[in-house]
Design goal:
With 360 residues, this protein is an alpha+beta fold. It has helices spanning 9-19, 24-38, 42-47, 50-57, 64-77, 92-97, 110-114, 121-131, 141-150, 158-168, 174-188, 261-270, 279-284, 329-333, 339-359; strands at residues 225-233, 240-244, 254-255, 258-260, 294-302, 307-315, 325-327. A four-stranded mixed β-sheet has the order 4-1-6-5. It is globular and about 75 Å long. 34% of the residues are buried. The structure holds iron/sulfur cluster. The site of iron/sulfur cluster has 15 residues, from α9.
Length: 360
């Protein structure tokens, strides 16, 4: 893995943030290389626009990770006033922790790393162990399972796992130790049918008699479905209206306005959008709640914690521009969009293609 063959703390940090919620294969094949080619240094990331960073992150999901990555990069860089105008970005308390140094260093202490947005204990430990070879254990999802099995902990609390991980850590060789634990977790101590016979931890493992008992499986959560009306509003020139999202899930991306259908239902009952209406929608789109527009199809996407079913509605000759703007298709290609918006665009294009073929 390329992020294991480097001592560049910045590159390791980027990889760790990407890997927080995403499989190694996806990060390796589609994101890590292109992201570092585009933003090869922490300074490059700090000075990029938010739209550029979001575009490079497009499709990777959990977009607050990208927003925090850039925020943190700006905090790191602003410790070097000669290379940045952004020193005001670092709050005083954090500035003290960050030891705004004269040299070119990337933060190399646990406290400094933890002071950066989007960096938790595990990411900080990974940077310290892999970039600086410092004695900190890494406890990603696979390693948690290995540790739970070695200590036969059925329902492990994080604090218990961290204490166990600290006990196991090889302080003389933290890089090799952590690599080995991650490899064992990925390839030997697998969720089902772990290969205990060839496991290097076999001699000390208290859970090997019944490994699949540890940790106990959590009850599967039911994923709720949210239904929305997704509005593709065209202006007189056929450009489409998009706004930059502010919410936690997709903040920083551009998207077509969405009106929750339950809001529409409540409006039908109360003939007003003054209650239960998100301010964003109330400000921009009250008229769509009155069933304006033509339904062109449906787009669906499943996020980690809910399924979104979007009824794609097209409205022509729209003039409102209060939050967003109108964009040509070429301009939209350059914007970072979420999956549901890409799927809505596919519905839109398919309908236009069909109409063009009929005409021909
Ligand atoms: S001996 Fe088996 S259960 Fe224990 S760590 Fe190794 S693979 Fe996992």
């Amino acid at each position: 893995l390329p992020w294991r063959n480097t001592r560049d703390a910045y590159a390791i940090w980027v990889s760790e943030v990407m890997l927080q919620q995403t499989q190694v294969k996806t990060v390796l094949e589609r994101y890590y290389g292109p992201f570092l080619a585009r933003f090869p240094t922490v300074e490059a990331l700090a000075s990029a626009s938010q739209t550029e960073v979001m575009k490079a992150w497009e499709g990777l999901g959990y977009y607050s990770r990208a927003a925090n990555l850039q925020k943190a990069a700006r905090m790191v860089v602003s410790c070097h006033p000669e290379r940045s105008e952004g020193s005001a970005l670092v709050p005083t308390a954090k500035k003290q922790i960050l030891r705004c140094a004269q040299d070119d260093r990337f933060p190399d202490t646990f406290e400094e790393l933890l002071a950066l947005p989007g960096i938790g204990r595990n990411t900080a430990h990974a940077v310290l162990a892999f970039a600086y070879r410092l004695p900190y254990p890494v406890l990603e999802a696979n390693v948690k399972r290995v540790v739970a099995r070695i200590f036969a902990i059925e329902t492990p609390a994080d604090v218990e796992l961290w204490a166990a991980a600290e006990r196991l850590l090889d302080r003389a060789e933290p890089f090799d130790y952590n690599q080995a634990m991650m490899d064992v977790g990925a390839m030997v101590c697998t969720p089902k049918r772990p290969a205990c016979a060839i496991c290097p931890a076999n001699a000390i493992c208290a859970g090997k008699a019944e490994p699949e008992r540890y940790p106990a499986k959590k009850a599967r959560k039911i994923v709720p479905t949210r239904e929305v009306r997704l509005v593709m509003a065209e202006d007189a020139r056929g450009r489409l209206y998009l706004e930059q999202r502010q919410d936690r899930l997709l903040g920083g991306l551009y998207g077509f306005p969405q009106v929750p259908l339950n809001v529409i239902a409540s409006e039908a009952r109360q003939s007003s959008l003054t209650t239960k209406t998100e301010p964003r929608i109330e400000a921009g789109l009250p008229r769509f709640a009155r069933n304006d527009g033509e339904r062109w199809g449906t787009a669906t996407h499943t996020y980690s914690h809910f399924k979104l079913v979007a009824e794609v509605v097209v409205v022509q000759n729209w003039q409102a521009t209060n939050r967003g703007g109108f964009f040509t298709r070429a301009e939209i290609e350059a914007l970072p969009l979420s999956k549901i918006d890409h799927k809505a665009l596919a519905v839109y294009d398919a309908r236009l293609d069909k109409a063009a073929r009929r005409k021909a």
